Amino acid sequence: MNLLIRLKETLKDIYADYDLIIRPVLKFGLAIMIFMIINNELGYLSALNNLFVLIILAVICAILPLNGIVVIGVLLIVAHCFGLGVEVGGFAAILYLLMTLLYFRFAPKDALAILLTPVAFICRVPVSIPLCLGQIRGVLSSISVAFGILSWAFIQSVHTVIEPLKNVPDVSLLDVLQAMPNALLTQETILQIIIFVAVLLIVAGIRRLGSDYAHEVGIVIGAVAYMFLTVFGARMIGLELDFQEILINTVGSILIAFFLKIFYFSADYSSSERLLFEDDRYYYRVKAIPKRNPVDSRTGELLEAESDAEMPYVDVKRFRQIREEEIDRKFKGINLQSKLEQSLRNFEVDAEDDRAPSEQPDTSVRAAEEQPGSAVVFAEEQPESAVVFAVEQPASEVLSAEEQPEGASEEQG
Amino acid sequence: MVDKDRLYRMIALARFEKKNEDKALRINKTYEQDFVSYALIRNFFLTTIAFALLLVVFVMYNMDFWLSNLNNLNFQPLLIALILGYLIMLGIYSVIAFTIARLRYTRAANSVRQYTHELDRLGKIYREEDKLIKSIDEDKEESEEA
Fold first, then answer.
1. Are A93 and A139 in contact (CB under 8 A)?
2. What 3-state DSSP class applies to A305?
3. How many CB atoms lie within 10 A of CB A52?
4. Residue of A nearest to B117 (CA)
């Protein structure tokens, strides 16, 4: 285990340094694997059955975001289906368009499931998909899993049902059109959808418990549930099963899920960033490399990973500390006590003057303006209220909290 | 000399800008009502297309039934069922689209509010720096005059 943890740390370091190269290479590898499997399974369009074409497509995917693989992969499937027949291609286009319109437009991050599920089935590790999705995503990914199985069922049906049907000499267009949805929604497919959704819900549910070994327990219980449900379901619909094969497939899926858990889910592969910005005096070229275990230099506490959507610099406690340090720095060497006494003396004189009805200017304000230190001392002496106010309000109000001493001096009086 | 605190703030702001150039910052350029309305209009067209495609698959699935009963079909209840189904689907998807659009806008607005807050703080640091530079210049002039 120590070796694995050390390996993970090394991988994180390497990723942080060379992410610019590693990320496209990983995307290229994933894309070429998916495209080759699609070509092996379908391969009806001879123009696409060329390794160079696949390499070019994979290189394009390496530059594009991750969903570029999904778009190009789906286009590849549709193109191969058009190679078999216009009606098959049309149905494939409708099917994938429907998946996008019904669900993936709301959850585009899950879209890779429609390609990875067929890949997992072909690699004989089908249950790795719900085991992994249950860990990274949530309960809603059960819809992605269901669509992934439909995608696999379609690819399988093109290979096993539609192609033989097209080769029959007197087959009509109507027969092919009707065979496609019928081959898609078989009892076996529905059973697989139910089992996969159940496994994903189990894994996601256990993960949500938040216990120490929730991931590991979720993977094992999910895999056991998969085996149990598969055997039970197959008996119900009268399917013959090779139990040994299911056992081996499940063990393989568990290994993949554990591998991903160790090297992907529990590691923060936040990559280095290159930033370019400027102010009136300088251009700043910054390369920010994430620390292995980020620690707050002031409090010594471990920092959590930053969220993409939020401002990373919003620590109110730290901002308050910085403000206090700024104040200390600003008034270093100034005898605040004597200034405070002076201010109070002025205030008392002013208060006496105020008792007589007159239109004299507010000397306390004037005195405080002349001695800004006094106002800040009041703000510090009040139990956090003034300082918190300064932190929570925009900069303009921070200024006002410091520069308007009336309230503070009144309270003091 | 470069102020370390100011630099950290600038880096944080630059990172936020880079990450949210086409997310929160883009969303925040529009009003909430416009953003949600746009999401609902887009949802209307996409749901209509999805319903039409679902209908095509449904007809294909029961092709035998439609062909054998085409002459005996009563189209009025069929049309009513069709319209009702469409309206239910549109309603469900509109609620989902509305909720997601509101949620996205609120999140974007919150993060942009924090961003502008940070910008204000940065502006304040600049103003303080300018004041300091001015006072140093004035001190120099005074000492030269003296």
1. no
2. coil
3. 7
4. A394
User: What does the DSSP assignment read for A312-331?
Assistant: S---HHHHHHHHHHHHHHHT
Domain stop point among A205, A238, A265:
A265
Shared domain check, A8 and A105: yes
In a domain, A249, yes or no: yes
Q: Are A390 and A398 in contact (CB under 8 A)?
A: yes
Smallest CA–CA distance from B100 into chain A, residue: A106
**CB–CB of B53 and A101 under 8 A?**
yes
Average pLDDT over residues A238-257: 88
- Which residue of A106, A174, A275 is in closest CB contact with B96? A106
Interface contact flag, A314 B118, Cβ < 8 Å? yes
Mean pLDDT across B93-116:
90
**For testing contact with chain B, the best of A88, A100, A101 (most B CBs within 10 A):** A101
Q: Residue A304 contacts by C-beta under 8 Å, 6 or more apart in sequence? A: none
B115 touches chain A (CB under 8 A): yes
Tell whether B88 is within 8 A of chain A (Cβ).
no
* Cβ neighbourhood burial of A69 (10 Å; 0-12, 13-18, 19+): buried
Helix residue spans in chain B (DSSP H): 4-20, 24-27, 32-61, 63-68, 75-145
B121 backbone dihedrals φ, ψ, rounded to 5°: -60, -40
Euclidean distance between the first and the last CA atom of chain A, given in angstroms as a whole number: 67
What's the gap in Å between the CA of A185 and the closest CA on chain B? 9
Answer whether B28 touches A (CB < 8 Å): no
pLDDT tens track for A75-122: 999 999 999 989 899 999 999 999 999 998 888 888 889 999 999 999
How many Cβ pairs closer than 8 A exist between chain A and B?
Answer: 97
How many angstroms separate the CA atoms of B78 and A85, rounded? Answer: 32
Interface test with A, best of B42, B121, B125 (most A CBs within 10 A): B121
Residues A339 and A374 sit within 8 Å (Cβ to Cβ): yes
Which of A310, A314, A330, A392 is the best substitution to test chain B (most B C-beta atoms within 10 A)?
Answer: A310
Q: Which domain holds residue A405?
A: 316-412
Type of residue found at A198: A
Is B38 in the A-facing interface, judged by CB distances under 8 Å? no
3-state helix, strand, coil in chain A (%, to 5): 75, 5, 25
pLDDT digits (tens, 9 = 90+) for A301-334: 666 555 444 454 445 556 566 667 777 777 676 7
Answer with the one of A265, A291, A324 that is the final residue of a domain. A265
Do A332 and A237 have their domain in common? no
Same domain assignment for residues A155 and A243 = yes
Query: How many structural domains does chain A have?
Result: 2
ipTM: 0.79
